[in-house]
């Protein structure tokens, strides 16, 4: 093992010295405890129960308490504690529900003293009174706590926590009669040993089981708790209600917490699973540990400071079958590897930037932040002069950049979230409604996006083609055309480039006239063509069609036209004479030869039948059967990615919900989940809880759907005896009364409950509303004039 630093500490007349060292155990340890003079440590587990002497260089085994040929389950220990008043007295919590005391002063090999077999299930914790020699407290999986007088054979009092199991019990160091107990349901109870019938105080400390607790060594009102929710919380019990004053977020379930001696704000923790390290936190700086011990290779099961007045020696046992003594000077410091820079936006658009003070102080142009609010300029940790190893001077300078109130306003986001419709209507109505909302907020691009989505994805088969173009000619926006132009739109002075395109009009016209599936739509607004300077032969020609003719192709049978194709005799088609070949429009020529029409009028009239409909008027219904909506899915996907990259995750998520399966397969699951979590976070920042819950319910991601189904705990107290109720039903186990009765129907309310804040009576929401429609007096008969608002 590498050479470690040696530490010597003077404690009154005693001297503690040593180094970081370890020894191998015969089996994994479940708990450890140290004797009063810090010279010995006891290690207990399922298959081990030994006492080791703590020498300067090593641990030396002194005594094995597992004696006999067939050790019973009484030796299988879940917890062990060494009395701090009597160095010969030990107590263990056995996995079979037995509490055992051990007297090391016995001359025989078997040091077992007394057995208490009153618990029905595993005992999780045992604790001696700090000043009373014969008082022992135990907490069991059966939900009961028992106080034993070691001079008697039976317990002197039993405390019922009204919960499934007790995970930890600890006597208060300063209050003689007080002890704390933690429970599986997340509650912490404070009891007076003189009153076993009812707890003095109860509060919910964690979301999930509370595995451990520890009273502060100096401040009588501070209680630290750790739970499965990965948090360590410090509670001030001096107030009438328990007040959370510090909270440390760890990375795994917290199995043990121990306040560090002589350091008021330092606390050591270890985890129940996943994380094998031991951390020492400064609760004033909860985001990064002050020190870390990384020696164990498996889960740490027990930690204890070697002496009540020495902050530099820490003992630990682990499932890797090792016992360690850690020296604080050898601990690693996570602050060495921490990033001193930080960046964060506030809800109002302000930007906070923190960096090393040395970097920012060199900037002569930087002005100090003198704001009216919220943040100091510098965060600096004061160094503890008594600390044996030096901390890095990890001070940071904070700059806050404020945004203009008007330019940074997010009112549009709130209004959009409240007014958007995401479900419950046909797709076309949802798109129209959301487009109208966006238009009303001057978000024209978003409004146009919703309109395009309606055109692409909504079904228009119910709209008659006869009325389609007529409605457009009147200015209606019911069905926009994909591509439409008339001869009136062509400029008069066409040059040579325009003449090259003359044949396109005829080719496109012939396709429309000959395709029986096409729809000819009359345009009543385009009948007069007098005064047009366009040559009459503009429509006639014989060259290939342009790309717009793709809309007229039969996509289901793309090779039909190829079979009828014959190789032309000439490389270039011969252009026929315009005057001598009017066969394309014979019926028009007859009309032009009428004696009632002049020559110039003939040219004009010859255009009238062609111009009576939009020359290329391919409506949605025309190409709907040719191009499926999947054709546009990549474009819609790119549109959503564009909005997300621009920061408008609201539009991306809203379109994703409205389109559903139409677009979901085009975007990977991870990207969708990222959009959903970002939008939900924004909604919750603006306290739009109902809308956030609606988005969670409508989402298609499994990870998002379960957000509102977890981490929700409802604590119900009996309205009669005020005791907490179990989750097994709606009848109180103690007073046998129903929890919440409706004053109208006299049945238990299991859904929405409304009550009068004046007289506290209430019931089902619908029943109370109906009652107050005809009467203003309380339905319970108390005479109070209730009012429903």
From TrEMBL:
Subcellular localization, as worded in the UniProt entry: Lysosome membrane
WD repeat spans: 116-158, 203-245
Keyword Nucleotidyltransferase belongs to the record: no
Keywords associated with the record: Autophagy, Lysosome, Membrane, Metal-binding, Repeat, Transferase, Ubl conjugation pathway, WD repeat, Zinc, Zinc-finger
Keyword Glycosyltransferase: no
Chief site of localization: membrane
GO cellular component terms given for this protein: cytosol; GATOR2 complex; lysosomal membrane
Compositionally biased region (Basic and acidic residues): 498-509
An example Gene Ontology biological process: autophagy
Annotated stretches, region: Disordered: 493-534
Pathway in which this enzyme or protein is active: Protein modification; protein ubiquitination
GO molecular function per UniProt: ubiquitin protein ligase activity; zinc ion binding
SUPFAM superfamilies tied to this protein: WD40 repeat-like
UniProt catalytic activity: S-ubiquitinyl-[E2 ubiquitin-conjugating enzyme]-L-cysteine + [acceptor protein]-L-lysine = [E2 ubiquitin-conjugating enzyme]-L-cysteine + N(6)-ubiquitinyl-[acceptor protein]-L-lysine
Family as reported in the entry's similarity comment: Belongs to the WD repeat WDR24 family.
Task of the protein: Catalytic component of the GATOR2 complex, a multiprotein complex that acts as an activator of the amino acid-sensing branch of the mTORC1 signaling pathway. The GATOR2 complex indirectly activates mTORC1 through the inhibition of the GATOR1 subcomplex. GATOR2 probably acts as an E3 ubiquitin-protein ligase toward GATOR1. In the presence of abundant amino acids, the GATOR2 complex mediates ubiquitination of the NPRL2 core component of the GATOR1 complex, leading to GATOR1 inactivation. In the absence of amino acids, GATOR2 is inhibited, activating the GATOR1 complex.
Protein name per its UniProtKB record: GATOR2 complex protein WDR24
């Amino acid at each position: 093992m590498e050479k470690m630093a040696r530490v010597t500490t003077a404690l009154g007349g005693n001297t503690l010295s040593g180094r970081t060292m370890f020894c191998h155990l015969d089996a994994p340890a479940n708990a450890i405890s140290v004797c009063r003079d810090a010279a010995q440590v006891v290690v207990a587990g399922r298959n081990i129960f030994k006492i080791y002497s703590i020498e300067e260089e090593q641990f030396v085994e002194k005594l094995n308490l597992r004696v006999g040929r067939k050790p019973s389950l009484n030796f299988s220990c879940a917890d062990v504690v060494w009395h701090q008043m009597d160095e010969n007295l030990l107590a263990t919590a056995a996995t079979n529900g037995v509490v055992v005391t051990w007297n090391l002063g016995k001359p025989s090999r078997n040091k077992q003293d007394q057995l208490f077999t009153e618990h029905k299930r595993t005992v999780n914790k045992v604790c001696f009174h700090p000043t009373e020699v014969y008082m022992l407290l135990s907490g069991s999986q059966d939900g009961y706590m028992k106080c034993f007088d070691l001079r008697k054979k039976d317990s002197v009092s039993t405390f019922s926590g009204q919960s499934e199991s007790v995970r930890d019990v600890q006597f208060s160091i300063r209050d003689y009669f007080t002890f704390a107990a933690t429970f599986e349901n997340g509650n912490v109870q404070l009891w007076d040993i003189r009153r076993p019938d009812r707890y003095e105080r109860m509060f919910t400390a964690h979301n999930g089981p509370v595995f451990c607790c520890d009273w502060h060594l100096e401040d009588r009102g501070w209680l630290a708790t750790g739970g499965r929710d990965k948090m360590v919380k410090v509670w001030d019990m001096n107030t009438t209600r328990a007040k959370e004053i510090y909270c440390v977020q760890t990375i795994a379930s917290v199995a043990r917490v121990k306040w560090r001696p002589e350091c008021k704000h330092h606390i050591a923790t270890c985890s129940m699973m996943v994380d094998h390290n031991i951390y020492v936190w400064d609760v004033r700086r909860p985001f990064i540990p002050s020190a870390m011990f990384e020696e164990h290779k498996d889960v740490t099961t027990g930690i204890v400071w070697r002496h009540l007045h020495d902050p530099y020696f820490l003992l630990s046992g682990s499932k890797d079958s090792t016992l360690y003594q850690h020296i604080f000077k050898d601990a690693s410091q996570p602050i060495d590897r921490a990033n001193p820079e930080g960046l964060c936006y506030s809800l109002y658009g302000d930007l906070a930037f923190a960096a090393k003070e040395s970097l920012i102080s060199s900037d002569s142009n930087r002005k100090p932040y003198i704001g009216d609010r919220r943040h100091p300029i510098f965060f600096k940790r004061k160094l503890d002069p008594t600390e044996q190893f030096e901390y890095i001077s990890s001070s940071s300078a904070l700059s806050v950049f404020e945004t203009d109130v008007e330019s940074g306003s997010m009112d549009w986001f709130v209004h959009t979230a409240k007014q958007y419709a995401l479900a419950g209507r046909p797709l076309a109505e949802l798109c129209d409604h959301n487009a109208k909302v966006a238009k009303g907020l001057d978000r024209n691009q978003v409004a146009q996006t919703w309109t395009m989505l309606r055109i692409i994805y909504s079904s228009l088969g119910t709209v008659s083609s006869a009325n389609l173009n007529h409605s457009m000619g009147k200015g209606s926006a019911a069905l926009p055309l994909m591509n439409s132009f008339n001869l009136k739109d062509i400029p008069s002075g066409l040059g040579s480039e325009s003449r090259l395109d003359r044949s396109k009009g005829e080719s496109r016209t012939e396709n429309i006239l000959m395709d029986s599936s096409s729809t000819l739509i009359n345009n009543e607004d385009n009948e007069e063509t007098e005064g047009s300077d366009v040559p009459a032969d503009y429509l006639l020609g014989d060259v290939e069609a342009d790309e717009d003719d793709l809309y007229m192709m039969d996509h289901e049978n793309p090779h039909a036209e190829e079979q009828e194709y014959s190789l032309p005799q000439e490389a270039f088609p011969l252009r026929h004479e315009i005057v001598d070949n009017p066969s394309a429009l014979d019926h028009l020529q007859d009309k032009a030869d009428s004696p009632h029409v002049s020559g110039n009028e003939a040219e004009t009239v010859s255009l009238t039948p062609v111009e009576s409909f939009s020359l290329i008027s391919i409506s949605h219904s025309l190409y709907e059967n040719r191009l499926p909506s999947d054709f546009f899915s990549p474009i819609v996907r790119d549109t959503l990615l564009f909005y997300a990259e621009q920061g408008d995750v609201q539009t991306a998520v809203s379109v994703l919900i409205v389109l559903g399966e139409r677009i979901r397969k085009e975007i990977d699951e991870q990207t969708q989940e990222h959009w959903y979590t970002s939008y939900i976070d924004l909604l919750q920042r603006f306290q739009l809880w109902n809308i956030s819950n609606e988005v969670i319910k409508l989402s298609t991601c499994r990870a998002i759907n379960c957000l509102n189904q977890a981490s929700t705990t409802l604590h119900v107290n009996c309205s009669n005896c005020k005791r907490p109720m179990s989750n097994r039903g709606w009848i109180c186990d103690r007073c046998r009364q129903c929890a919440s009765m409706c004053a109208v129907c006299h049945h238990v309310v299991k859904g929405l409950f409304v009550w009068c804040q004046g007289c506290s009576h209430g019931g089902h929401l619908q029943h109370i509303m109906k009652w107050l429609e005809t009467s203003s007096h309380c339905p319970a008969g108390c005479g109070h004039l209730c009012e429903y608002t």
